[in-house]
Amino acid sequence: MEEPIVEFELTKDFRDRFQQALDARDAAFIRESLDGVKAADITSLLYEFNAEESKYVMDLLPLELQAEIISDLDPETRKNFLKIYQPSEISTFLNQLASDDTADILHELPVKEREEVLSGLEPELRAQVTELLRYEENVAGGLMAKELIKARQHWTVVQCVDEIRKQAENVSKFYAVYVVDNDDKLIGRVALQDLIISDARTVVGDICEKDIIAVETYLEDREVAEIMSRYDLESVPVVNVAGQLVGRITIDDVVDVITEQAEEERQAMTGISEDVEEDDSVWRNTRARLPWLLIGILGGLMNAKFMGLFEAQLISLTAIAFFVPLIQATGGNVGIQSSSLIVQSLANPNFVDEGLWKRLLKVFFVAILNGLFLSVIVLLANIVLFQEYELSTVVAIALFSVVLFASFIGTITPLILNRFGFNPALAAGPFITTINDLLGLSLYFLIVRIMLI
């Protein structure tokens, strides 16, 4: 019978009451309040307290739950939290986890402590983790878990089911049985449903699905995530260069990769050059934000210098200065919109192969419609507000031109950055805004000079 799941809500009142219990070392209240609460919810609660207080709470919980909480912590917090534990205590936690989670945590420890923790692991887990530690963290080999269910291709269904019962003791969840030959080379896989409905004497090799997707140990984690997302896979087998089955990656293993990638792109689009969080140090936050702020300042100085080149025109017709913010703001917004859509499309590796010129033509027509619509609105508004027909016409034409060119720059810039190996998300932030500010001013003053002065 499954234990009931307690619905948990972290409110200020509960947090204050929990703090009182911690101060009083009220173990009974802490155990009772956390009874049946999921590990992820307890993790979010522990973020509210310091390391010593959190350790006191952890010591009151079942060992398996402690291990799951340790695994749930974000890497930076976990690295600091584990400093208050002895290597033998860390080994006790890790013995409760899967090999991939254990390897991830060991990667975060200093080398000396890592060796001490490894020595305290159970022999089978130690062997599995030692192999995983050979791989970089950002490749399939470092992402995979060693725990899986496999069967020889010459086994019967009865033999396979018996083996499943033995191997399943060390595998928390599995979706299929992988079929290998005598050299452990991957042949295919058998769905559990097919095993159940097949005759007991049927040979596994005859009912296995042989046309399956597998990934190599050296494949980057982002490519693994993309493959699993594209083909809607719950798990994918991992093979070495010889084609031997060495592990598997489940969908929960790549969720963190997808989340991390989205976070990196979001920060790049907002002009943050490092992976930082709000509660990081002042210096780390400053260092992450300052480079693109300096680029923005440089762009602003260039804009000021550029406007100085048209000082004579501004003096003779001061009204043209009123529309500089309009031109710059519109160009920046259009550029960011265009680049954001391209960055999103580039997440699909087949983007360029699926009709690049057709997509660019579509972007061009969208820019024309947007430009016409905005230009007409600005033209009519200026005529009503300023009664300057000639100036209103110039501003409308300039705005239309800026929308077209900003859309083009916003589309082509991430493609160029991606072509040369840079993060295309950089094109959706201060970078594209600075470029379009200069572009917009250039077009605006050029059209003013041609039509008015």
Describe the structure.
This protein is mainly alpha-helical and 453 residues long. It has helices at residues 12-23, 27-34, 39-46, 51-59, 63-72, 75-81, 87-94, 99-107, 111-119, 123-132, 140-143, 157-167, 192-197, 204-207, 221-230, 251-269, 282-308, 311-316, 324-346, 356-386, 389-419, 430-451, and strands at 150-152, 176-180, 186-191, 215-216, 235-239, 245-250. The strands form two sheets. The protein has a three-stranded mixed β-sheet with strand order 1-2-3. A hairpin with a 5-residue loop joins strand 2 (176-180) and strand 3 (186-191). Helix 17 packs parallel to helix 22 and helix 20 (356-386) packs antiparallel against helix 21. The radius of gyration is 30 Å and the shape is extended.
How are the elements arranged and paired?
Elements: H1 12-23, H2 27-34, H3 39-46, H4 51-59, H5 63-72, H6 75-81, H7 87-94, H8 99-107, H9 111-119, H10 123-132, H11 140-143, E1 150-152, H12 157-167, E2 176-180, E3 186-191, H13 192-197, H14 204-207, E4 215-216, H15 221-230, E5 235-239, E6 245-250, H16 251-269, H17 282-308, H18 311-316, H19 324-346, H20 356-386, H21 389-419, H22 430-451
Parallel strand pairs: 1-2, 4-5
Antiparallel strand pairs: 2-3, 5-6
CATH 4th-level superfamily of the largest domain: SLC41 divalent cation transporters, integral membrane domain
How many discrete domains? 3
Alpha plus pi helix count: 22
Shape: extended
- Per CATH, the class of the largest domain reads Mainly Alpha
* Beta-strand proportion: 5-15%
Largest sheet: 3 strands, mixed
Name of the CATH architecture of the largest domain: Orthogonal Bundle
Strand line-up across the major sheet: 1-2-3
Quantity of strands, as a count? 6
Helix content: 55-70%
Q: Give the overall average pLDDT.
A: 83
Radius of gyration: 30 Å
Helix-and-strand structural type: mainly alpha
Return the string of H and E elements: HHHHHHHHHHHEHEEHHEHEEHHHHHHH
